[in-house]
Each structure stands twice: as C-alpha cells, then as structure tokens.
Amino acid sequence: MEPREFFIEDRLERFRLNAFCNLGESGLSHFTMEEMLSLAGLTGKDLSKIPMYDAPNQGSYELRQTIANLYPGVSPEEVLVTTGTGEALYIAFQLLVKPQSKLALVWPAFQALYEIPKMLGAEILPVPYANAFAASTWEGVDADLYVLNHPHNPSGMTFSPNEWDSLLTLLHQKEKPVVFDEHYRFLPKGGGMGKTGVDPKHLFYGTGSFTKCFGVTGLRVGWLIADKDFIKRARSFKDYLTHTVNPISERIALGLLKEKDSFLPSIQKRVQNNIDHFTSVWRELPNVEFFSPPEGGLVGWLRLQPGIRSEDYADRLMERTGVFVLPGSNFEMEGFLRIGFGAKEDVFLEGLKRWKSCTDLI
Ligand SMILES: Cc1ncc(COP(=O)(O)O)c(C=O)c1O
What we know:
By secondary structure, the chain is an alpha/beta fold. The chain has helices spanning 9-15, 33-39, 44-48, 61-68, 84-96, 112-119, 129-132, 161-174, 211-214, 228-239, 247-281, 310-321, 345-356, and strands at residues 21-22, 79-82, 102-107, 123-128, 145-149, 178-181, 204-208, 222-225, 288-291, 299-304, 323-324, 326-327, 336-340. Residues 26, 84-86, 110, 149, 153, 181, 183, 209, 211, 222 line the site of pyridoxal-5'-phosphate.
C-alpha cells in the first residue's frame, strides 16, 4: 500500500525558493524568525529558556486550551496537537477509512484528502466544485465519510451563511462522520474568524492550523479536533509517528494564537488587496478565460482558454517572468492554474505586470 506521487510537490520544490514572484504556494509569504517572534510577543531570551524535553504527547495543555477556544463547545481534551495538518489528516483517515468505504469530497482537492483514503482502500466520490457549495448537491451523495475543505483549496470557494446552515442540517441527518479541513479558516473574506463546522459530539471532526495563514509554514504545527475517545486513539497512533511536536514550535504557536488579533487584520488586508488587484487585471493576462475571486483563504482557480496544457503555460510563465503558479494538471484537472494570493504586495504587483506583458506566451 503506497500513495501515488504527491503531484504538486515536485514543482513546489523546484520553484518556491527561487521564483521572483511565488504564486504557486498556498501560504502567506514567510516571515523570518525575528519577525515571527515579534508577532508572537516573544524574544530570543524567552526561547532560550524553553526546556528541551519531549512536549506532552497530546500537546501542551495551554496550547490545546487556546486551540479549543477557537471552536464553540470544544474542550482541551478534544484537541490533539500534530506536526502540521497533514499528520492530523493522516491519522484521522487511518482511524475512519475502511476498505471500500465511500468518501465524498469537493473536486478538485488537495491530494492528501483523497490519496491517503485511496491508499487505505476507499472509493472516492468526487463532488465537482461548481455545484459543491450548494447544500442541496449533497442530498444525493451517500458516503460513509464526508470531507469538507472550507475555504476550498484550490478554488477559494465557500458556502454562503444560508447554504452553510442547510449543509450542517443535512449532514446531521446523515449521521455519518465528517472531517472539516479548515486550514484557511483565519482568512475569511471580510475579516474576523471564518465559520467552523466542527462539533465532535455529532461526529463532525476538524483539522486545522494557522501556519499558512500566518506565514510561518516552517513551524509545522497543526491539530485534530474530535471526541475524547477518538483523540485517545489518534494520540496512540501519533505515538508511532512523530510522537510529540517540539517544545519550541509549541511555545511559538501558543504566542501566535494568543496575539493573533494584533497582526491578523494586516495579513487579511494584504491578501484582500492582492485578490482585488488580480480581479481587476486578470482579463489582460494572456490566454485566460475565467476567474472568480476567492471568497476565503489564500488561493484561486483561473481557467485557461481551451486546448492549452496548464503545465506548458506554467513552465513558460516561470521561464519568461519568474512568476510561479501551479498547473491544474497537478490537481488532476486540466485547463486551470492555481494562483496564490499571499505574496508581498509590491512583488505581487510587479509579477502581474510582467505576466501581462507576456503576450506571446503560448
Ligand atoms: C486543504 C489543505 N489541507 C491540509 C494541508 C496540509 O497542511 P500542513 O502544511 O499544515 O501539513 C494543506 C496544505 O497546503 C491544505 O491546503
């Protein structure tokens, strides 16, 4: 049992650190250690005092309490701190997916959301993104497990408040487990904190992190939210994987979550400015056909004119301008590009200027 290659990773490895304008990644452009500590209200001296033992297996109580506070009615006992959202998803699927389980999710999708279940023998029921954000679409979808990535990567689409309420009512009636992957929850359109579907009492589990939204992906901290028994089993599974998250990452994560209200609005403003700018100029980009601005998160989905191979487009754009985007083929859907909106604004403006001027790209 082995998952297929993770399609986005090869290109990310090649270009994310040397692209002039990195629109390929789904995270905010990274902060330095110094900047991150300042956001977290910490100093180098604070870090130097951290005892370098194994952090508690489930995650420190204070960090779990702070994470639990992000969800209505969730207690620290219902939180497992993990090495990134990736580990939380991996463990959750190991415990939830059986051979021949039917797993429904919005398509296209972040590959880990279906590749690991497939490896475990699941049958995948893809729900095309164009209709997936209407609750009624899910009425006729009968699955053993639902995976709701919201805001959605790669389309940036979200459920409107009414559709969201109807979706939750519908999912309650189905009485099947749901995994809400809410990695981009800190960046809803209009600011504040995005909605959550997580409710462990009704089998509505959650995975999340702040690392992409806060520009600190290198910290590798994420979490799983579930009922206490499930968390106990998940912790035992984690004991065989990464065992614990390092105490430095945990301490910085705690500081960032506690201080988030002081810096998140400026991040949200930057992302929205980039989205607004892109929305005003996308029609001037060569060989593109349609774009709908994301309603949450950090990424959007740009449709190319028919017949263009997304990989050819992405390769030439990178070669000619240093602008790095991900081809739709990496999401197993030809004819699209995934665009990230987390770059610094001046770099983003210059990148789009170069892209626009490439009139003979194809
Ligand atoms: C929807 C989604 N879920 C999970 C992950 C994995 O996140 P992490 O880097 O925290 O492991 C990503 C990363 O891009 C993602 O986009």
